[in-house]
Amino acid sequence: MATANCSNTLSSTFYLTGIPGYEEFHHWISIPFCLLYLVGIMGNCTILHIVRTDPRLHEPMYYFLAMLSLTDMGMSLPTMISLFRVLWSISREIQFHTCVVQMFFIHTFSFTESSVLLAMALDRYVAICHPLRYATVLTPTLITKIGIAALLRSAFPVIPLLARLAFFPFCHSHILSHSYCLHQDMIRLACADTEFNVIYGLVLITVLWGMDSLGIFVSYVFILHSVVRISSKVGRFKALNTCASHICAVLILYVPMIGLSLVHRFAKHSSPLIRIFMAHIYLLVPPVLNPIIYSVKTKQIRQGVLRLLFP
Question: What average pLDDT score do residues 139-164 get?
């Protein structure tokens, strides 16, 4: 299994990895993962339900929050089936085409989430720096266009990266490092020149995440410049408090994302447990924590949750 002969990639079978060295505890390890997925799915579905059913939340800020919930689920749900198939000892096998589809969803929605966070930063900029123009600038039509553009901007650049995998022979180990497929993990197994994929992937990450993070940073520079000119201390606090949830969401996405990229590129000989741990944080923490943070820090969402629990 570990030293499969070179074969047609489209018919190749790869083997997923659970938690190395703890195979006998996989059934117990699956319990916290079940709880995390359950909390993430219920939390994001609750956010979507509240935004959809409460007319008072039909505003740009909450539309972007609904987009964030959708991208959170789009990034984490594709990994759920393969993860539990491994932990419950059903099967470690995954076909190449299934692997590519899984990679497409994971990488597309991770880029999309970054774009949505940029859109949310712009929303906070308009709300704080140009409050009188807020409703006229961020119209439902513009918000819909932003959502579609964020998805297309993230999906199309990923296609050439994954399409090239179909032409790579995999002559050595077919064992992946995780319980789901990641591009940086797959090209490690290829018996071919993967320089294009490595450079293209690095450029893609630098351009997309770099542009988004730069846009978020510039937005907050203007926001802080506007906030310091508010004479009232209470007014300054309220303005900054509306950004607290968004800042937390940015850190929750970018810190594990950067950590996982650095581990795969510069710590290839580190313990497999580190890579596995970082990958699970990257995919599971944002969907779990984002609904909790917005429910705690946003009064309208908190009230909507309470109305669901105590009608």
Answer: 93
Q: Please give the C-alpha separations between residue 52 and each of 58, 81, 158, in angstroms, as whole numbers.
A: 8, 28, 31
State percent of the chain over pLDDT 90: 33
Enclosing H/E stretch for 95: strand 93-95
Residue located via tokens 């309470």? 306
CA 154 to chain centre: 12
Measure the CA–CA gap between 44 and 100, rounded to whole angstroms: 26
> Which of 57-61, 96-100, 268-272, 284-288 is least confident?
268-272
pTM, rounded to two decimals: 0.88
- The pLDDT, as a whole number, for residue 3 is 43
Per DSSP, the three-state class of 175 is strand
169 vs 10: CA distance, rounded Å:
10
CB-based contact 107:151 (threshold 8 Å): no
- Give yes or no for a contact between 79 and 179, defined as CB atoms under 8 angstroms apart: yes
**Which residue from 64, 215, 199, 45 is spatially nearest to 142, judged by alpha carbons?**
64
For residues 243 and 124, what is the distance between their CA atoms, to the nearest angstrom?
A: 7
Q: What is the number of H-type helices and E-type strands within the chain?
A: 11, 2
List C-alpha distances in Å: 125 to 64, 118, 137, 183, 260: 14, 11, 12, 35, 30
